[in-house]
Design goal:
Elements lengths: L1 H17 L6 H13 L3 H14 L7 H131 L4 H30 L1
Length: about 230
């Protein structure tokens, strides 16, 4: 820093001696060097004051003081530019951080939504799986019930068929007995006709009643078979 202070005094002296034709590149190089060394504006201001004292410019003219101010402004311009760039970088960094935070929140929200979706999908899969088992059980029960109904229907039809057979057998037996009785009465009437006409009439009437009773029995059994 002492070396830079000496270079500063020498550059300022040449600058003031040169008058209006002086160039500001030496002041700009000093400022850039100060940036490399990490110096700030306040430190360069002290260095400038010390150079003014060393050069004994306390009673300098207004033109000389103005040129000295121009020199100092050129020296600190790299620092000012650096600060400006730093502020812009900070602004950009803050904006990037804000964007990053926003994206992070969006990502977290999307992650939570995805997790809820996964949980919901698992629930639906579980419900479908249970429903599938339930439907399979219902189908099995339905098939078993159909089999029971089929067996019951078969048993009922079998019982009805057996009942029809029994009724038919009873009908045959009853008709046979009735016909046999008619046959017996006819033989008896044949014999009575030879000796007793009155007895013949009574026998014929009895036989007719027997025939009517047989017809009634046949109709009754027929109705039962129809039902």
């Amino acid at each position: 820093m002492m070396l830079l202070a000496g270079r500063y005094r020498a550059a300022l002296r040449r600058h003031l001696k040169a008058g209006r034709t002086v160039k500001l590149q030496p002041a700009l190089r000093l400022g850039r060097r100060a940036v490399v060394l990490g110096l700030e504006t306040l430190e360069l201001a002290r260095m400038h004051e010390q150079a003014l004292v060393a050069l004994r410019l306390g009673g300098a003219t207004k033109g000389t003081i103005k040129r000295a101010k121009i020199f100092f402004a050129e020296v600190i311009s790299p620092i000012v530019e650096t600060h400006r760039a730093a502020r812009e970088s900070k602004t950009k960094l803050d904006s990037l951080n804000e964007t990053l935070n926003h994206r992070t929140l969006e990502l977290a929200a999307a992650k939570r939504q995805l997790q809820r979706g996964i949980i919901g999908r698992k629930r639906v899969e579980g419900a479908l799986k249970k429903s599938g088992k339930h439907d399979a059980r219902l189908l099995k029960d339905s098939l078993q019930l159909q089999e029971v109904l089929r067996q019951l229907t078969h048993e009922v039809l079998t019982a009805q068929e057996d009942e029809r057979k029994n009724i038919s057998r009873e009908l045959r037996d009853e008709i046979a007995q009735t016909l046999l009785g008619i046959q017996v009465r006819l033989l008896s009437l044949k014999q009575e006709a030879r000796a007793n006409t009155k007895g013949l009439k009574n026998g014929i009437a009895s036989t007719q009643r027997l025939v009517l009773e047989s017809a009634k029995s046949v109709r009754r059994v027929a109705r039962e078979l129809g039902n």
